[in-house]
Amino acid sequence: MNLTKDFFITLSQNKLLTKGAKRWGLQLGAQTVVAGTNIPEMIRSVQELNSQGISATIDNLGEFVFEKSEALEAKEQILHVIEAIHENGVDAHISLKPTQLGLDIDAHFCLGNLREIVHAAHHYDIFINFDMEDYGHLQPSFDLIDELSKEYDNIGTVIQAYFYQSDEIIEKYKDFRLRIVKGAYKEPENLAYQGKNDIDKNYLKLIEYHLLNGKFTSIATHDHHVINHVKKFVRENNISNDKFEFQMLYGFRKDLQLKLASEGYNFCTYVPFGHDWYGYFMRRLAERPQNLQLVSKQLFNKKTNTLIGLGAGAFILGRLSKQRKKSEE
Ligand SMILES: Cc1cc2nc3c(=O)[nH]c(=O)nc-3n(C[C@H](O)[C@H](O)[C@H](O)COP(=O)(O)OP(=O)(O)OC[C@H]3O[C@@H](n4cnc5c(N)ncnc54)[C@H](O)[C@@H]3O)c2cc1C
């Protein structure tokens, strides 16, 4: 089986497999990159990170939400996480995805949910990061941010370097705390750079721009070339450590996470937790199929093979039907 980026991206968007994975739990191998399924487990992971000088951004996993009840459940859960951060006094903030709070159902309903979350977090001085999803959700997410930033200053978001329009976006949002990433979704050629060199070049350009002109910068990457470049850039431009941080995902390059923290850089780990881990996990495999090596042998148990096998079937059928449509045109 050829485990390509397209293959894992297709799996990440498969609603049926998402449901199946929720039922089967983390036994499929994702526990290496997901910090538990409930709040106490997640808090223990965050406490361990904090004891190593690392802060956390907590993601209550969830996407493909098309039922109001599910969005409300997610909102309640995130409110509990905010309470847990406060009660346990951990060094952490929240990352969330607008689609989990109902963006695909009704933007006004989603705004109401987000307002409750941002308001509760504001009360405890907790920062909320709006993760960025695929292009279809880009402008709707910025509309929500524009609306909420009229009332609250504890929000920030993500700039995805693969989009051609990212330099306009970063300029518009330079007064926000921004996480800058390469971009995790599959986007078409008319919207986004496709080649690694182009994406990397734009990524460095955006990071440098925000470090020089913007508010706080979170450089979210596992790429040591980028990290080394940033270290040199901040030294040469006298940018102090309190203007930026490095971020990586939970379970990835732990040695490098600890090294950067011990060198005195601010370091924040993205800590996903919950039952809805499947789309998140498949996107990590799409970025780097070698990430399969990260997870234990359990990944290749009978259930996982069924899951990947079913996904492969759906992927191949999808490809065949696209090819057939093209030849009929
Ligand atoms: C904290 C965080 C939050 C994110 N939030 C978002 C978001 O909101 N929206 C979004 O679209 N995307 C998000 N992403 C994903 C991001 O867009 C990229 O898809 C992802 O980070 C992969 O790109 P990379 O920069 O890490 O390195 P890559 O381009 O994948 O890798 C570059 C090089 O780095 C090295 N490398 C990478 N990974 C490893 C590893 N595990 N072990 C050893 N070497 C490695 C290799 O030499 C590799 O060739 C987020 C990423 C992080 C870390």
UniProtKB/TrEMBL annotation:
Pathway: Amino-acid degradation; L-proline degradation into L-glutamate; L-glutamate from L-proline: step 1/2. Its EC number is 1.5.5.2. It is an enzyme of class 1 (oxidoreductase). The keyword Repressor does not apply. Pfam families: Pro_dh. Gene3D superfamilies: 3.20.20.220. Keywords: FAD, Flavoprotein, Nucleotide-binding, Oxidoreductase, Proline metabolism. This is proline dehydrogenase. It comes from Cytobacillus purgationiresistens.
